Target: Porphobilinogen deaminase
Amino acid sequence: MIRLGTRRSKLATAQSTIVADRLRELGHEVELVLITTTGDVNRAPLEQIGGTGIFVSALRDALLAGEIDIAVHSLKDLPTAPVDGLTVGAIPLREDPRDVLVARDGLTLGELQRGALIGTGSPRRVAQLDALGLGVECTGIRGNVDTRIGMVTEGKLDAVVLARAGLARLGRLAEVTETLDPIQVLPAPGQGALGIECRADDTAVLTALAPLDDPATRAAVTAERQLLATLEAGCTAPVGALAEVVEGEDGPELWLRGALGQEDGVRRLSANGPVDDPVSLGKRLANDLLERT
Model:
């Protein structure tokens, strides 16, 4: 029996159920263990209560205590610093990593009037939306998908920006009014990907997880997360990143785009490198971004 630890939210349990079903298809018995994290009960802004790492600390504690065998995280919520005794045993095939707009009256971002109120708790999104010069106003919000979209349907906000992957896993893509091009808004490092964490010495679980790992997704998110780590930025910092494995002249290569919010705007750069060395690519692009600030 593999004990899978998950947060209690609809999205977290949906993501964990996807992983559990994959493991069951491979012949494993899986039990979901519901765990409450600080981020689920404290509604203060993330930057005030420790960043998005607050969503994973309780799960990691349960792993280290032997209370669960694996934990499923949204990889964008997972701090870049490693934890002794734990490892990410699998990163499955990534969902579409882009951000989406859910707006009143089916409007797109360009159709919103100047002064329109957009809800997002992400400094990354705020910095990039401001840089577009559309004259919209951003306001911080917290809460689950129902709460956020409800603010639009109730008329409290003109729109909210969310991760497309979450809505896809919840079966709610019909509510999207626009998928934002990464040229406008780069997603968070690791967005759309799941990280399945386990104890580093649990060889049986690591063997069970191996078939779930997608090498191209792992390479891409490793480059993105290394960029974030090199910038010494927390998960709530205004950093966007998106890497993709593409076919180059000499075979597959990794392309990485990065965005860093500054007081005077957003710096954007891209770079490419070998698929088998995503860490070096992430470091190189991060250093290039720092040199331009």
Residues 39-51 have pLDDT under 50 and may be disordered. The first helix runs from residue 10 to 25.
